[in-house]
Specification:
mainly alpha, 2 helices
Length: 66
């Protein structure tokens, strides 16, 4: 993506944010998914890891191992 942004699809099982379809991050307009994303520690850890990686290297990348 332009500017070094990375689009992370929370609803893609390969990204590891959903377990057995829960929370329903792949549901359009789901209030439950929106609230869950605000409080999901895995998402917060991933964001922090990506920011730290960027600050250390100056390169956007994936926070593998999350």
């Amino acid at each position: 993506m332009p500017g070094g942004l990375t689009n992370v699809d929370l609803g893609d099982p390969a990204n590891g944010f959903m377990t057995r379809g829960v929370p329903p991050y792949n549901s359009a307009f789901s209030v439950q998914a929106h609230v869950a994303a605000e409080w999901d520690e895995n998402i917060h850890r991933d964001i922090v890891a990506r920011l730290l990686l960027f600050l250390e290297t100056g390169e956007p990348g994936s926070a593998s191992g999350m």
